[in-house]
Amino acid sequence: MTSASEALKKAALAIEEAKGIAKANVGGAIREVLESIFSRHRELNGVMWRQYVPYFNDGDACTFGLHGVKAQLLEGEPEELSDWLYIDYDLPEEKAALTEDLAEFESFLGECEEFLEIAFGSHAEVTISRDLKVDVEEYGDHD
């Protein structure tokens, strides 16, 4: 018979293993979706979003969430990088197809928020470049 301490250690290891699998699966799914978007939109240089638990929510529960997907575009000759643009109101009208694809991507991310927290942390700014390089930085400057 195992002790409670051994059982807890075994359970903790199983949970960490499950988190690792979830992180790999969500990362692979995000990569696959973005690979498709980047291939269709040569002007897209990268996407970025912030995810966090707000510090204050006017008396309501503070829960983890995704906060605004942004896009960075390649512009002009020679190509220069744009500022980070919110997909729902900063992208130019002539980029309607890109806006639609990124809105679908944002919706996809919203469907897997609990896995985003496991994969990238609860106070993070996640940036994914055209070459699918993922950069995660701590983000605590909100609210």
Brief overview:
The protein has three helices and six strands.
Keyword list:
six-stranded antiparallel sheet; 143 residues; 3 helices; 43% helix; alpha+beta
Number of strands: 6
Number of helices: 3
**Approximate helicity band:** 40-55%
| Class inferred from helices and paired strands | alpha+beta
How confident is the prediction overall: mean pLDDT? 89
Q: What is the molecular shape?
A: elongated
Strand content: 15-25%
How many domain regions?
Answer: 1
The rounded distance between the terminal residues' Cα atoms is 50 Å
Kindly provide the radius of gyration, computed on alpha-carbon positions and rounded to a whole number of angstroms: 18 Å
H/E element string? HEEEEHHEE
Low-confidence segments, given as residue ranges, are none
Largest sheet: 6 strands, antiparallel
